[in-house]
């Protein structure tokens, strides 16, 4: 687990932010980062993740609380004194400078010698595999190349912390995947600490050591990608990360971490209790479409309930089945396309199966 | 079937028939485009190109004297400019003067000659009056004597040199005058003896235009920056204030400045009442008043292009620069300012060129001290009736502006300009 790496290199302590002196955009943000860690702030737009990044960079003031970098408070430090690299969504490459001049900018500001600047610029150009592109202007580069330059520019002056604000948001899917690998490669090679903001969960899951999921100014869960996906702390995280089915029901029995829930669509389901209430309280059962199975013999499943097939969607690598429970709740089941996908009747109920460790019970608000 | 299509579709060349069709289509589009702009082209030709061409031509062409006294001029051709021309010329001049007096055109000749020889006007007029009473036969016999008797000036070479010069249909006199130069009778170019006005006035005009441009820049740049970075609602509201001057009559705005700046005007009343000054300041009818009023009037021309360019500059540029360690001022100079250059140069060029040729405001609030070249051009067109000189001055102004533009293009690059 990444938790044992936390040594408080970067620390947010009770950080709050309000723009209008009335409502908080970021409500009591606490987080510790280890040196060299790759942390992603993930959340829908307006959830406060970019605000946190801007406070970190110094472009937004902190309403209350502290930010400590390597033990020193930087809450009131001017942005240009923080020595933090930043990559912007629109690259923010200076259009009136060549690529080499763009890379040289932070070094020039730091009054490095000409020889050192030239040497370092070339080294970073080679690093991003744009060695011969120094004389071009940003306008002559493709989106992916520009993104690489922006990345190199944020790294060239050797900051120990790099902030990335949706850096791949403007790229198409294929390029985005390439760049994810590129960023991971540089991160591993150079060992800097990253705070990465995105609303793309796929990006977050593949790149991060840890992910902080934001909603309405509050961190809903901060954990490693696999924990986040497989053990969501609440309904928001379960819904936001990946795809999920939600079945409303009532808790009928509770034993430690495990609950038994009578779902309104008919049937009982055993599930792991995430943040559910006591016996008699309303709850939601979440179960991922790929963790549901359509009736087959010889398997040992904890939960089984009947549902009627409505639609079947051929996606290619898998097939998506849309079922409906008695109360109208829609349930999606994803079946791998290995030519064993069952032919189901649309008039008779099929039996859906799941293991109890794949089902989570959340409080219904 | 599918395979057939793939094969024929893989050849990108057009057949002859298809090419002809494509060409016809292209021609049709071009024709339509041309028809759409034809009215504007015609309008420009008549309202813009033709007048300017006429102006350029008029600066060289001066047929007035040649039409008034063609006979005299013809007989004056062999004269070498020393002594008095021979009697035939004098006689012909007497006859011409009589004829002009009869048809009341001697004033025109007097005016034209006076430009070359100050003081010639009254001599020509009085002589013409005297000769008018003589008969034609009398003048044919002793016109030369009568002419010489009418005024002693006729016995001096100067007047005849003036006549000869004024009689040239194509002349560089106006252009030379516009540059404070003149041509001696021998043909050498020298600085004008009778006064140096125009070069000084051009310099002053350029200097004032430069000051106005700088003022507009100093006032407009921060405002444009503020507008570009303000929330849309505030920006729209403030933009109306920027545009407000465009909706008010130029005369009203200029007159308002008179009310503010005059000796007993608002500013002076305030200053004396507040005991800041004891005697009212002399502000109206000075260079100062011209600069202030014109800066006010031309400010939107600076703000609008700057605003549109600044609007397009991503705020993340400044942030990026600062995240890389640049102080705000250094980030501004090295990143923001260069990116506003297109708007800045467009605005500066607009304001400069407009103010170089500005007329109304200097005429109203400038007095004699705040006059610019256009006021002198207007003077020559309306009062001294010297269209040739006005045309020459105007042409020089045009050349000056084109030269400045060329220099600008050379050193800054006109492709840089962004008007909106």
Overview of the molecule:
Chain B: The chain crosses the membrane at residues 31-53, 208-228, 240-260, 288-308, 344-366, 387-408. Chain B: It holds the Pfam family BPD_transp_1. Chain B: This is ABC transporter permease. Chain B: InterPro entries: MetI-like (IPR000515), MetI-like_sf (IPR035906). Chain B: Residues 202-408 form the ABC transmembrane type-1 domain. The complex is a heterodimer of chains A (365) and B (420). By secondary structure, chain A is an alpha+beta fold. Chain A folds into two domains: 2-235, Rossmann fold (3-Layer(aba) Sandwich), CATH 3.40.50.300; 243-363, OB fold (Dihydrolipoamide Acetyltransferase, E2P). In chain A, 23% of the residues lie in helices and 34% in strands. A six-stranded mixed sheet of chain A has the order 6-7-8-3-9-10, with helices on both faces. In chain A, strands 11-12-13-20-14 form a five-stranded mixed beta barrel. Chain A has a five-stranded antiparallel sheet with strand order 15-19-16-17-18, with no helix packed on it. Chain A is elongated, with a radius of gyration of 25 Å. The two termini of chain A are 31 Å apart. Helix content of chain B is 73%, strand content 1%. Chain B is built from 20 helices and two strands. Chain B folds into three domains: 15-58; 64-170, no CATH class; 198-416, MetI-like (MetI-like fold). The A-B interface holds A 57-59, 78-86, 88-90, 92, 94-96, 105-106, 109-110, 153-154, 157, 163 and B 314, 316-317, 319-328, 330-331, 334-335, 338-339, 341.
């Amino acid at each position: 687990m990444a938790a044992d790496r936390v040594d408080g290199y970067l620390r947010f302590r009770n950080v709050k932010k309000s723009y209008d002196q009335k409502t908080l955009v970021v409500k009591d943000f606490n987080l510790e980062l280890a040196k060299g860690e790759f942390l992603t702030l993930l959340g829908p737009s307006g959830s406060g993740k970019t605000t946190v990044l801007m406070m970190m960079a110094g472009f937004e003031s902190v309403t209350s609380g502290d930010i400590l970098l390597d033990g020193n408070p930087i809450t009131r430090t001017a942005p240009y004194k923080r020595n933090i690299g930043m990559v912007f969504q629109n690259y923010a490459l200076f259009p009136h400078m060549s690529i080499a001049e763009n890379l040289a900018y932070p070094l020039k500001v730091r009054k490095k010698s000409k020889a050192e600047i030239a040497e370092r610029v070339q080294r970073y150009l080679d690093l991003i595999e744009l060695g011969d592109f120094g004389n071009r202007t940003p306008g002559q580069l493709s989106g992916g190349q520009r993104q690489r330059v922006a990345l190199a520019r944020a790294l060239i002056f050797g900051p120990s912390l790099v902030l990335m604000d949706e850096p791949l948001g403007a790229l198409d899917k294929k390029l985005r995947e390439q760049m994810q690998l590129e960023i991971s490669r540089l991160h591993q090679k150079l060992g800097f600490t990253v705070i990465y903001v995105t609303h793309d969960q796929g990006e977050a899951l593949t790149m991060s050591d840890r992910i902080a999921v934001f909603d309405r100014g509050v961190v809903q869960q901060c954990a490693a990608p696999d924990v986040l996906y497989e053990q969501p702390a609440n309904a928001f995280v379960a819904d936001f990360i990946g795809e999920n089915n939600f079945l409303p029901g009532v808790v009928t029995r509770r034993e430690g971490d495990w609950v038994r829930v009578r779902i309104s669509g008919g049937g009982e389901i055993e599930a792991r209790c995430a943040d559910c209430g006591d016996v008699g309280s309303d709850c939601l059962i979440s179960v991922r479409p790929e963790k549901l199975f359509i009736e087959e013999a010889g398997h040992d499943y904890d939960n089984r309930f009947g549902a009627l097939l409505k639609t079947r969607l051929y996606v290619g690598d898998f097939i998506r089945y849309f079922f409906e429970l008695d109360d109208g709740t829609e349930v999606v089941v994803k079946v791998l396309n290995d030519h064993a996908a069952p032919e189901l009747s649309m008039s008779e109920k099929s039996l859906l199966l799941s293991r109890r460790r794949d089902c989570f019970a959340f409080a219904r608000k | 079937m599918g395979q057939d299509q793939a094969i024929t579709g893989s050849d990108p060349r057009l057949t002859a028939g298809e090419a002809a069709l494509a060409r016809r289509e292209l021609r049709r589009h071009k024709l339509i485009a041309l028809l759409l702009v034809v009215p504007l082209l015609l309008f420009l030709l008549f309202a813009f190109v033709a007048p300017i061409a006429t102006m350029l031509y008029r600066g060289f062409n001066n047929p007035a004297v040649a039409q008034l006294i063609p006979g005299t001029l013809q007989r004056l051709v062999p004269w070498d400019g020393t002594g008095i021309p021979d009697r035939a010329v004098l006689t012909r001049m007497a006859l011409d003067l009589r004829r002009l007096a009869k048809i009341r055109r001697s004033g025109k000749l007097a005016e034209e000659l006076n430009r070359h020889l100050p003081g010639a006007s009254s001599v020509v007029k009085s002589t013409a009056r005297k000769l008018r009473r003589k008969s034609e036969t009398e003048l044919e016999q002793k016109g030369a004597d009568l002419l010489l008797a009418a005024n002693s000036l006729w016995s001096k070479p100067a007047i005849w040199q003036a006549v000869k010069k004024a009689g040239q249909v194509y002349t560089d006199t106006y252009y030379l005058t516009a540059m404070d130069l003149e041509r001696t009778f021998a043909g050498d170019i020298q600085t004008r003896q009778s006064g140096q006005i125009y070069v000084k006035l051009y310099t002053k005009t350029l200097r004032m235009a430069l000051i106005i441009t700088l003022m507009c820049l100093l006032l407009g740049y921060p405002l444009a920056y503020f507008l570009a970075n303000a929330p849309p609602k505030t920006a729209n509201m403030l933009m109306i204030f920027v545009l407000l001057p465009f909706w008010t009559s130029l005369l009203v705005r200029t007159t308002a400045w008179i009310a503010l700046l005059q000796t007993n005007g608002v500013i002076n009343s305030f200053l004396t009442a507040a005991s800041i000054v004891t005697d009212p300041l002399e502000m109206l009818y000075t260079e100062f008043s011209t600069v202030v009023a014109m800066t006010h009037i031309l400010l939107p021309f600076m703000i609008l292009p700057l605003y549109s360019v600044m609007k397009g500059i991503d705020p993340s540029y400044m942030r990026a620069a600062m995240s890389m360690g640049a102080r705000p001022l250094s980030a501004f100079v090295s990143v923001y300012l260069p990116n506003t250059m297109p708007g800045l140069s467009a605005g500066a060029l607009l304001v400069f060129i407009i103010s170089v040729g500005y007329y109304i405001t200097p005429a109203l609030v400038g007095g004699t001290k705040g006059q610019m070249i256009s006021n002198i051009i207007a003077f020559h067109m309306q009062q001294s009736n010297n269209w040739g000189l006005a045309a020459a001055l105007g042409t020089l102004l045009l050349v000056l502006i084109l030269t400045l533009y060329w220099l600008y293009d050379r050193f800054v690059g006109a492709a840089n300009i962004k008007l909106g």
